[in-house]
Amino acid sequence: APNDTSNVLDEIHTIFERVKHLSNSIRQGKRLGYSGRPMCDVLVVSAGGVVPKALEFIYELLLLDEHGEASAEVDASTLLPSKSNSQSNSNINCAAPQSSSLQSSVYNLVATPFKKHSTGSHGGSSPTKLFGQSHTTRRRRQLRVITSSDPSLIKRALSDGLRPSTTIVITLSLDREKERETKAITASIRNWLLSGLQDSVEQKSRDRAVAAHMYLVTGKDMMRRAGSNSYAVPNHTRCEAFSTFTAAGLLPLSILFGWDVAQRVLEGAHDMDSHFVESSARHNIPVLLALVDLWNEEFLGSNGRT
């Protein structure tokens, strides 16, 4: 734990820089999965807690934002097994088109309508060639969340297009009371991961395969220096209200949308903090929401949130 003279912001900014570096490396294709393919989808494991629900909520909201939706796109053709091994890994691009480029601007103006309207007789859109690339090869990075050790729920979360070779697993171990269940879920996901990579993973290489795909965000002080795949949540931000804005929330979001978008989320949270401190109670959104909760629960006998 930091001593009385230490600046807690130093630790926070160090963690942010690590998250930024890792997410950039993954999105740019510099850090690949064990089988040599880009990792684009994120699977979050946590036995309960607020952060998984908050992540799903923020993920869906960011997809409604034009910049967020574009940042979540990935070239699906790079995720499939290659017919030839002659292509260098350095040529693999897992990133979305950069909004500052002319190519991206034309891409958004011309290709986006084909994503909204169907032109074929079966409701599908015709492939549109743009700069030598078919628009239909692009898809969104997926976020999946598993909060229960129920095998049927785990199976459902892992179905529908999620591949071990292109999936990053992030375990959130923030609640000591749920630690055992979180470990059980993580063990199941580890088996799924290794089973899906079995063609390329030898017995002696299992640790390397796990290290390439699995990351841990923990509140345990003893895990602070457990390795480059571990991220610690500082003592002063372990409250559920703040954990989403630590590595627990920023690591998945920055991989899915990029660090720039994740930083915008942080800036929005800071703006809300400032609004709460500076605004009168009559115009204070957090205060008004709290009063609505109180009215619904105490006077109407209904749940204050949905």
Describe what this molecule looks like in 3D.
- 45% of the residues lie in helices and 11% in strands.
- By secondary structure, it is of the alpha/beta class.
- The strands form three sheets. Strands 6-1-7-8-9 form a five-stranded parallel sheet, sandwiched between helices. A two-stranded antiparallel sheet has the order 2-5. A two-stranded antiparallel ribbon has the order 3-4.
- A hairpin with a 2-residue loop joins strand 3 and strand 4 (133-134).
- Helix 1 (8-27) runs parallel beside helix 9 and helix 9 crosses helix 10.
- The longest helix is centred in the N-terminal third of the chain and has 20 residues, at 8-27.
- It is globular, with a radius of gyration of 21 Å.
- The two termini are 37 Å apart.
